[in-house]
Amino acid sequence: MGRTLAFGLQHVLTMYGGIIAPPLIIGQAAGLSTDEIGLLVACCLFIGGLATILQSWGIPFFGSKLPLVQGTSFASVSTMGAIVSGAPDHVHGLQSVFGSVIVAALIGLLIAPFFAKVIRFFPPVVTGVVITMIGVSLTPVAANWAMGGNAKAENYGSLQNIGLAALVFALTIVFSKLGNAAISRLSILLAMVVGTLIAIPLGMADFSKVGVGHIFAFPQPLAFGMPIFEFGAILSMTIVVIVILTETTADILAVGEITGAKVDSKRIANGLRADMVSTLVAPFFNTFTQSAFAQNVGLVAITGVKSRFVVTAGGFILVVLGLLPVLGRVIAAVPTPVLGGAGIVLFGTVAASGIRTLSKVNYDGGYNLIIVGASVAFGGIPIVAPTFYDHFPTWVSTILHSGISSAAIMAVLLNIVFNEIKGGNSTKGSVFVAAPPRMVREDELDNLEDGDSYVGGKLIDAEGNEVPVVTATQQKVALTAVVKEHEKQNAPVPESVTPALRRIEAHERTNPPGGH
Question: Where are the bilayer-spanning segments (predicted)?
Fold first, then answer.
């Protein structure tokens, strides 16, 4: 029991920085108080623990029964931030977020058994774009945190704020560099702790309100009111849920391979159902979409501890932490620049994960390059120009105001247009595909003479005369005529003519007629 709890705690510490980031981001975007953000954090831990227990322990039809840790998904953060930012007030924004998550989770629950058929529309070229844009779209959040988080504050963007963020960033890199594996894996969390301790004597951290409120409390259901259901928010969140289903499927397959467990369509469906039922329940307890944490899959591989009951123990630890709102208030009191320094690394790592996925995509001779290029650029519009969609209908603005939703929609549509519906595709691939390295066959040089040059699309000889550019058939006719004329005159055929004819005949045997 002791070792099981110790290994379970290690899983919690590994994902702790990631699981508390979404409620902090959304809480900041919604303008919540420290106490309210603390509530979001506590609920996030509580539901994440229950979801982890359901996924790893499992009950009939729900749970993969594999060592998979569940928590609030990063994939939904950008979309939820867009929904909250577009709302008239933070309460309405959160209610709209919760409503969209509920409906999207129901849709995800319905399609989970059939997802093996849907997943073909989410190959690496699509998921790679989406994951990359998750990290990229969150980078402005990290920058805002590093500057202080509140644009109206006098010290917003001060060297003191940015300096503290830079210190946390540097500490994260240093801790990652150290040879100790445990310190390296906990680098973000440790850097935040050290940064906060340094901020206290500088007067940049206020923990005076941590003791205000209950130390132990059950999360209050619907603390921000009843959910609100808006079409645009639901549509964009449904896209995010499909991405989450794709990520969880990949994590199930990965951990199955690591543990040697048999993973079939039934097990995947059970795991996805657990994912979606947890996501369905989450909004009623003031939290968001749930998904498997990839970093914990890596931890299973690194430690070699493959027991699902270790992860179940980690789930119980998360539940206990979620019943301690005082802990949520401590986390919410961490100085915003500290979060900014850690966020730059954390969000950059998410983007890097997407780039790693895109590196597996084949770009030769197809349309994947234009799919990636157009989708990333389209997803970048609301990031670099946040007011771009302000004059569009509200439901359009809600969907496309998020870089993740914009990129996902474009990537899915272009993948269908180019890779699923292949009718009308050019046989030579896209004009945007990177050109192959330039080269000339050795036998083609035999037709050139010293002094020849290619100018303005024309071949010019040393005397300035244009050399005709003809097809292989035209060249064969002309050379054959030369041979007949010389034979008619009983003159020797020029030495270059016969080899040229042989090359043309060899070319015709290996290539269809009409080649140049």
Answer: 12-31, 37-54, 97-116, 125-147, 159-179, 186-204, 224-245, 309-332, 338-355, 367-389, 395-418
